[in-house]
Design goal:
Elements lengths: L20 E6 L2 E6 L2 H4 L7 H11 L9 E5 L5 H8 L3 E6 L4 H11 L8 E5 L16 E5 L8 H11 L5 E6 L4 H10 L3 E9 L4 E8 L7
Parallel strand pairs: 3-4, 3-6, 4-5, 6-7
Antiparallel strand pairs: 1-2, 7-9, 8-9
Length: 218
Amino acid sequence: MALVPYDENLLPSLVKLHAASSDFRFAERSIRLAQDWRGGGVAAVVWDAAVVMCMYLELGHVNLKNRTAIELGAGTGLVGIVAALLGADVTITDRSLALKFLEANVKENIPSDLQGAVRVSELTWGESLERYASGGYDLVLGADIVYLEETFPALLRTLDHLSSENTEVLLACRIRYERDERFLSMLGNRFSVQEVYYDSERDVHIYSAVKKKTKPEL
């Protein structure tokens, strides 16, 4: 079930979310992602934040070659797929209910020679984090994952666990409500956060966060 109200007559601009698939061109490849709003809700459609994140990655602002990346709340998998096509070794994650749909999109869009560089894995924020290497990733990616305030503590624990002081966290999101600003403030307690990109047409911000260095004990 979708987590936000939707009425086709009231919000015609969101009709694209009801399309059975969505087509993109990134990393010199055509990408077609299946969508299923009615069956999978917000996790089964492509949101603008994911598109803007992919644009940002494709512009070369981040070095992806031979780097380890993990995508949180991947949904249809667009960001993780593009990161892999641009040279990263990627773990693409979401909750267990979304995995079958996510796996199908990854299989459809990752060429055979890159299959070994991509894996789909279950990750519910804040749970069983020991399954993932502490500080074991160069990049942590998230597109439109900052919207439910009750998930903020678990998301912050997850980001903290996955990141070392050399990890860059990239979050693409709209700032819709005061709670979104509160999340950035909470993130700033453990990370140095700065806005690195803004798409005015889609009203999507990209924030870069790097874990603050801990002071050595005297």
